[in-house]
Design goal:
This protein has 237 residues and is α/β, with parallel strands linked by helices. It has 2 domains: 9-114 and 209-235, Rossmann fold; 116-205, Dihydrodipicolinate Reductase, domain 2, CATH 3.30.360. The protein has helices at residues 18-26, 69-78, 94-104, 116-132, 156-169, 209-222, and strands at 9-14, 32-38, 59-62, 82-85, 107-110, 139-146, 175-180, 187-193, 198-204, 227-230. A 6-stranded parallel beta sheet has the order 2-1-3-4-5-10, sandwiched between helices. Helix 1 crosses helix 6, helix 2 packs parallel to helix 3 and helix 4 packs parallel to helix 5. The two termini are 28 Å apart. The chain binds nicotinamide-adenine-dinucleotide. Nicotinamide-adenine-dinucleotide is lined by residues 14-20, 38-40, 43, 63-65, 68, 72, 86-89, 111-114, 150, 152, 211.
């Protein structure tokens, strides 16, 4: 039977910085029509998120700042529009966001890292940690390096990595270190250090395209869904 082509999806992009622009560039090739783009000047205090502008929008992708994201989520939810949240630095408010999502009946996918390779890295890290769990001579640690413009530290990805491996390693506290320098798109390492040697598992993002690719994948997936989903849920086996 011939396969049906994927229908074109109308997309709103909130936040037109480095990530918003990467998504705008890739979206047409992935079957999206970008109908609306808002940045801080057109959306100060959430003022750009109106019913009129969102009339024909199927799904919205949000990559802004930790200060702006909660207000944007609240407003997009009130408009009944499904949403992908890429902004990091707000996960301490996850319960509040869950309530907003449940109350409004929309679907939301969020992630500290939308790269598909990073999702596989998290799973590999859990397995490697299981291997080291019974060898206490190895001390676990996480390092992350990002460009000097990144506002939050440690990165959401480093915190997620710790959240995934800490339970496996029990009371051996996983130290986390952050470096902000230059233009690095993102490097995350899980290391195990002993007196004799070091073992490192590393994820290196080559650019922003991997994040944009994953965010658009999540945007297509979330159309017609209800509830709050972590991007990792889409890869659970
Ligand atoms: P950026 O600084 O280049 O862009 C942020 C943009 O948001 C700016 O253009 C700013 O003007 C705009 N903005 C601020 N307040 C706004 C508002 N109220 N409404 C609309 N736009 C507003 O940053 P970036 O590199 O694009 O990253 C954005 C966020 O995404 C950061 O939190 C970053 O850590 C995160 N990030 C997440 C992933 C992931 O995979 N989840 C990947 C890369 C970056």
């Amino acid at each position: 039977m011939p396969t049906q082509p994927n229908p074109t999806i109308s997309l709103a992009i909130v936040g037109h910085g480095k990530m918003g622009q990467a998504i705008e560039q890739l979206a047409p090739a992935r079957g999206f029509e970008v109908g609306l783009i808002l940045d801080v000047d057109s959306n100060s205090g959430g003022a750009g998120l109106t019913a009129e502008r969102f009339r024909d929008v199927d799904v919205c992708i949000e990559f802004t700042t930790p200060d702006a994201v909660l207000g944007n989520v609240r407003r997009v939810a009130a408009l009944g529009c499904n949403l992908v949240v890429g902004t990091t630095g707000w996960f301490q408010h996850l319960n509040e966001v869950r309530e907003i999502v449940d109350r409004s009946g929309i679907g939301v996918v969020y992630a500290p890292n939308f790269s598909i390779g990073a999702q596989l890295f998290f799973r590999a890290a859990e397995q490697v940690s299981r291997v080291f769990a019974s060898f206490p001579t190895y001390e676990p640690y996480i390092t992350e390096t990002h460009h000097r413009f990144k506002k939050d530290a440690p990165s959401g990805t480093a915190l997620e990595l710790k959240r995934r491996v800490q339970p496996v390693l029990g009371d051996r506290e996983v130290a986390v270190g952050s470096i902000r320098a230059g233009y690095v798109p993102g490097i995350h390492e899980l290391g195990f250090d002993s007196e004799a040697d070091t073992v490192i598992l590393r994820h290196t993002a080559r650019g922003r395209q991997g994040f944009a690719e994953g965010a658009l994948y999540a945007a297509r997936w979330v159309v017609g869904k209800k509830g709050l989903f972590a991007f990792a849920d889409l890869f659970a086996t």
